[in-house]
Write a structure and sequence with these properties.
By secondary structure, this protein is an all-alpha fold. It has 3 helices and no strands. It is elongated.
């Protein structure tokens, strides 16, 4: 269920970044902060469990950033 939510968020950020590049930065940073909050909470686990529990949060935050970047990059390549 969480994976589907992250995929949906990436698609929404991608479309928003393509349609309105400047306005997409706020939602992108907000969602990355929210995902990062979960990663910081998960990293409090002792030992290697902290790294293992926080990795899905950091990779999903990275995916949201890449989708926003791809949307703005695609918009920049448009001929109009």
């Amino acid at each position: 269920m969480i994976i589907a939510g992250v995929i949906a968020l990436c698609i929404i950020i991608l479309i928003l970044a393509f349609v309105a590049p400047r306005l997409s930065r706020g939602p992108q940073h907000g969602s990355q902060k929210a995902i990062g909050l979960g990663g910081r909470g998960a990293s409090k686990a002792p030992g290697p469990l902290g790294r293992w529990f926080s990795k899905p949060f950091w990779t999903s935050s990275k995916a949201v950033g890449k989708s926003g970047e791809a949307g703005r990059k695609g918009r920049g390549k448009m001929p109009f």
